[in-house]
Amino acid sequence: AQSVTQPDIHITVSEGASLELRCNYSYGATPYLFWYVQSPGQGLQLLLKYFSGDTLVQGIKGFEAEFKRSQSSFNLRKPSVHWSDAAEYFCAVGANQAGTALIFGKGTTLSVSS
Amino acid sequence: DVKVTQSSRYLVKRTGEKVFLECVQDMDHENMFWYRQDPGLGLRLIYFSYDVKMKEKGDIPEGYSVSREKKERFSLILESASTNQTSMYLCASSSSPGAYEQYFGPGTRLTVT
To answer: Rounded to whole angstroms, what are the CA distances from B70 to A104, B50, B54?
Structure first.
């Protein structure tokens, strides 16, 4: 079955430290991969996406993610976390196929300590 | 920029009431989606639509129905609201043909008492 797993429910990182959020997927077709961020009380905002090509993709707010087909992973990284990055992060997978929808992970909550 | 708007940010309804949640997008997107979001459960797809008057059930359609009479508008209907439908409801849209990136509205926090 198609699925997305975010193994970490909650992560706390010190401000200025590096960040890596994990995402593993199970998807039969060539996946399209996404990371979204949700600030408290808000909708989801797209951080970055991977469709094809270079496996390291850059997104907004200084985030990047690397697609590793052999590990079925699409981990999100940021070299230096800011207090404003505290939010919930969702990984999603989909396909370029009509009538389909994205599959979301359950999310990882990021807290930033000073 | 794509803009997806939802009719209410906060809504309080009584058990048994019929509830309408409206979603409008301004980018001529073919696909529209309704999710509910609950702590620890992430986003769960209720219904989606890939064309006017077309709809597909998602993972949790029970207790809900949808309507898409115009391309830009997708309505979620709770025929008889129950307390277990208290949740955050998120609407999203995307362009055709498939699961390209979705653009989300701000959400409606529905409380059923």
So the answer is: 27, 12, 11
